[in-house]
Task: inverse folding
């Protein structure tokens, strides 16, 4: 079932990319003003650091990584045209190293959905402080349990999906609060078939 979910996720990602041009042009033609702070060229490449709490094992570690992409795809359209902001999206390719009860490397994608604060003129120039974040990809893991509790030094590969909230994605230092579910095949590492994590990530440039 998870493989079907992941397949649909990437199908949605592809559809979003194909529809980006017509969607943005129709909505606002490319407002980009305050997002130049961090949503465009300054965040083409970002560094990530944060905490990784395993809900399954009740253990907290750290995560490090980086990403490549755009927080606001409207940066491709008339970058300095001051047209009212309605809706925006972002896409990033992401690598993360997680050091917790399970040591893992993740490679995947994230999609940001930036919804308007209001449909009225009162808040038309106010950037959205909250954004929806959806991601997924592959996870390469090895257990951090004591050697006496595992049967071998093998590694395992699984898939993950995550969903959460992005805070202040237009700024050079912003935050992701994410809930991640990882799916692994049967193994001898003490890693469960379904692993759940809560992540606090800071993105810098």
Result:
């Amino acid at each position: 079932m998870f493989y079907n979910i992941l397949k649909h996720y990437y199908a949605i990602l592809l559809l979003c990319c194909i529809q980006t041009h017509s969607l943005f042009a129709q909505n606002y033609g490319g407002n980009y003003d305050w997002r130049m702070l961090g949503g465009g060229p300054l965040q083409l490449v970002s560094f990530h650091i944060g905490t990784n709490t395993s809900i399954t094992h009740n253990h907290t570690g750290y995560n490090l990584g980086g990403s490549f992409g755009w927080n606001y795809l409207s940066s491709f359209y008339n970058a300095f045209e001051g047209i009212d902001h309605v809706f925006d999206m972002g896409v990033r390719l992401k690598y993360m190293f997680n050091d917790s009860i399970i040591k893992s490397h993740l490679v995947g994608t994230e999609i940001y959905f930036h919804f308007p604060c209001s449909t009225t003129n009162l808040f038309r120039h106010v950037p959205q402080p909250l954004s929806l974040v959806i991601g997924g990809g592959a996870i390469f893991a090895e257990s951090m349990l004591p050697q006496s509790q595992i049967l071998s030094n093998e590694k395992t590969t699984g898939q993950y999906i995550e969903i959460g909230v992005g805070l202040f994605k237009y700024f050079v230092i912003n935050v992701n609060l994410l809930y991640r579910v990882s799916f692994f095949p049967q193994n001898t590492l003490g890693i469960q078939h379904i692993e759940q994590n809560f992540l606090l990530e800071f993105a810098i440039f």
About this structure: The mean pLDDT is 76. The first helix runs from residue 2 to 27.
